[in-house]
Amino acid sequence: MRILCAPILLLATIFCLIAGAAEISYIFPVQPAKSASFKRGGHGYPGIDIFVKKGTAFVSPVPGMVEDVQETDLWEKTRDPAMKGGVWVSIAGDDGYRYYGSHLDGIAAGITVGKRVKPGEILGYVGASGNAKHSPSHLHFGISLASRPYSYIVRRGEIEPYFFLDCLRGNRCDPRKALDDAARKSKSR
pTM, whole model, 2 decimals? Predict the structure, then answer.
C-alpha cells in the first residue's frame, strides 16, 4: 500500500499570496479534450465523471504541486470508502483549489508528492480502478478548497466542476471566474 501525502498547503498558500494577481493558466484535465464526454449530476456530491477511452492522459489542469498519490488500487481488498477512487492523484493548484482525478489505470512516471507540475503535464492514465471496475473507463474529477487531503469526502469534490469544465473545453468564458462562482455557490448550501 502506498498513499503519499505532503504538508504542502502552507507552501501553496504562500506561493499564491506572493504571486498575487498573477494569471493562472488552465487546461481541460483529459487530453485530447474533444474526446471527452461529461454531464452534470450522477453523484450525491459535487463531482463529475469524464468519460474517455482507457489510457487517455489525465493532465494537470493548473500549475501546482502534487499533493496526494495513490498508486495501488485497494478498493477490492479493503472496501474502505476512502479507497473508492482506486488509483488517484490530487494537485494543490497555485490558485488555491485542489484538483482530484481518480479511477486511473496508472500514474505517470515521475509523479510524486511534492513535484511541481505545469498545466497539461501528464499525471496518469484514465481507467476504471476502484469502485468503477465494472463501469466504462472514466476520470472522476473533483474540485475542493485547499485543505488537508486525508478526508476522502473533501477530496472527491466539494465544488461543482461542470461549468469550469464546460468553460475550459469551449473557451467561452474565464475558467477562474467559473471556478470562483461555483465555490461561492457551494459555500451557500
Answer: 0.85
> Which residues fall within 8 angstroms of residue 66, CB to CB, at 6 or more apart?
89, 90, 91, 111, 112, 113, 114, 115, 117, 123
Contact 117, 63 (CB under 8 A): yes
In a domain, 182, yes or no: no
User: What are the φ/ψ torsions at residue 139 (nearest 5 degrees)?
Assistant: -105, 120
What distance, in Å, lies between the first and last C-alpha atoms of the chain? 36
36-45 CB contacts, 8 Å cutoff, 24+ apart? 36/169, 38/162, 38/165, 39/162, 40/160, 40/162, 43/157, 45/153, 45/156, 45/157, 45/158
| 118-137 pLDDT per residue, tens | 999 999 999 999 999 999 99
Could you say which DSSP state residue 127 is in?
B
**At 143, which CATH number?**
2.70.70.10
SS3 helix, strand, coil % of the chain, rounded to 5? 25, 30, 45
Give the mean pLDDT per block of 10 residues along the chain (189 residues): 38 42 86 92 86 98 96 93 94 95 98 98 97 94 79 82 91 86 80
Q: Residue 87: inside a domain, yes or no?
A: yes
What does the pLDDT read at residue 61?
Answer: 97
Is residue 30 included in any domain, yes or no?
yes
Domain range spanning residue 116? 3-159
